[in-house]
Amino acid sequence: MFGGQMDFIVLIKAVILGVVEGVTEWLPVSSTGHMILVDEFIHLNVTPAFKEMFLVVIQLGAILAVVMMYWRRLLPVSLQNSRLTIEKDIVSLWVKIVISCIPAAIVGVLFDHQLNELFYNYKTVAIMLILFGIFFIVVENHRRDKVPSINSVAEITYFAAFIIGIFQLISAVFPGTSRSGATIVGGLLLGVSRTVAAEYTFFLAVPVMFGASALKLFKFGLHFTGTEAATLILGMATAFIVSIISIRFLLGYIKKNDFKIFGWYRIVLGCVVIIYFLTIGK
């Protein structure tokens, strides 16, 4: 049983945070930047330990949306004539994904606590929102008359995968960069088409988010109160549903448009973050 009105309010807040996660995880606008702002207005009435875990594990809902939508392209085995067959192209894709994840994984494991202390603040988030917003606009202007040289995920080389991984590392070090934003910019600079750059960043999120969520769950333990369990499940379910909508929107949008609108949005949001914390925020 829940504890009445207070528990109901917590669940409503979980839904709101799930919506924010589902939208901002896939659009290149920085989920961290939005979560910082949202957290100023929506305070979950939960323990600090649960809140820290919740804000990471809620991403599982978002990543399950990718797994559901792309499972045929991500599953390295198939059943043919009652026999399991290894799909070499998909195995190759996973090798590239691992290569892309290695830089951020090494730095994250070794320096996660130090990086959070140094850079997890509104100033870093705002600067990186604005800086990568400018990068998006500059890169898109530079590519305006150029034909992409990589038009499928299979065409991404192992070296290109590593370079994209370096851009993902930037997002791991500096909150506000946006993991999807950084990897998309890296892909665009390498000549990857917009659709392929977006899809590849979706695929990269699978091991990254599963790993981060598993680590947070392990540290927190599996001893949830009824309200905590309901809050986590509802947040994940909301993030799952909203993620499907966000991914489909993004893929449809970039077929006819570039990423510059997200660059301008990031710049505006970064300015809002700075103004808010200098004038109103504590």
Our measurement of the CA-to-CA distance between the termini, rounded to an integer number of angstroms, reads 36 Å
Task: Domain count, please report it.
Answer: 1
Could you state the order of secondary-structure elements as H and E? Answer: HHHHEEHHHHHHH
> Helical stretch count?
11
* Percent range of helical residues: over 70%
Average pLDDT score? 89
**Structural Rg:** 19 Å
Residue runs with pLDDT of under 50 for 5 or more positions? none
Q: What is the quaternary state of this protein? A: single chain
Using the alpha-carbon principal axes, give the shape: globular
What would you say about this model in short?
By secondary structure, the chain is mainly alpha-helical. 76% of the residues lie in helices and 3% in strands.
Task: Please give a structural write-up.
The chain has helices at residues 5-24, 31-41, 48-57, 59-74, 88-119, 122-142, 158-173, 179-189, 194-220, 226-254, 260-279, and strands at residues 77-80, 83-86. With 282 residues, the chain is mainly alpha-helical. Strands 1-2 form a two-stranded antiparallel sheet. A hairpin with a 2-residue loop joins strand 1 and strand 2 (83-86). Helix 6 (122-142) packs antiparallel against helix 11 (260-279). The longest helix has 32 residues, at 88-119. The mean pLDDT is 89.
Features:
about 280 residues; globular; mainly alpha
Q: Would you spell out the secondary-structure blueprint of this structure?
A:
Blueprint: H1 5-24, H2 31-41, H3 48-57, H4 59-74, E1 77-80, E2 83-86, H5 88-119, H6 122-142, H7 158-173, H8 179-189, H9 194-220, H10 226-254, H11 260-279
Antiparallel strand pairs: 1-2
